[in-house]
Amino acid sequence: MTPLISPTHWWRSLKREWLIYHLGLPEFRFMFDKPPPNEWVSLDCETTGLNVSTDEIISIGAVRIVGNKIMTSQRFEMLVRPARGVSADSVRIHRLREQDVAQGLPIDEAMLQLMRFIGSRPLVGYFLEFDVAMLNRAIWPLLGQGLPQPKIEVSALYYDFKFRQMLPYEQQTNPNIDLRFATLMSDLQLPLREAHDALNDAVMAAMAFIKLRQLRGA
């Protein structure tokens, strides 16, 4: 007897095939492959601001996670040359000056290299939605779509971990859980590296991800 296929599985398979068929650069269909077991990529972007529609990526940091190990030998660190320069306010945050990013790669080439580094691995990050939105804005003209990999938000894992530790009455009173990154790292007893550096932020997010997986017995 042929096993039944659930409507959800059928829909996901159909959507995957549709996306692959319409992929702007067919050589990147490997991003839709089954990911290597127990592997992820933690990433972070530094940008000229927080407006997804108008600001630009100027630095990308990413590192591979294999099991419970951060593979710092398999890291991705790149400056990206913005089209409109860098403001003084932006420099005060990430300390990347106009002359620094002028040596960076054009955004298209940076995206091609990043996608090859990620492969089909799920993405991990803190405030990942913003980073992925910035990346997708740059990737869409190349692929006609955004990054297809599953996304894992570290702050959501931390929220679930803290919520499960609460008593039932505490869970029902709209718990206020501090999701600031420094608080999260301190509570998990993890070292803080210098912030607003893309690779450092990616490594810290990877540490938090591994610790939270261990705490929940994953």
Summarize the SSE layout with pairings.
Elements: H1 7-21, E1 39-47, E2 57-66, E3 69-79, H2 88-94, H3 98-101, H4 107-118, E4 123-125, H5 128-143, E5 151-153, H6 154-165, H7 168-171, H8 181-187, H9 198-215
Structural write-up:
- By secondary structure, the protein is of the alpha/beta class.
- It has a single domain (7-215), classed as Nucleotidyltransferase, domain 5 (2-Layer Sandwich), CATH 3.30.420.
- Helices cover 44% and strands 17% of the residues.
- The chain is built from nine helices and five strands.
- The chain has a five-stranded mixed sheet, sandwiched between helices.
- The longest helix has 18 residues, at 198-215.
- The protein is globular and about 50 Å long.
Briefly, what is this?
With 218 residues, the chain is of the alpha/beta class. Helices cover 44% and strands 17% of the residues.
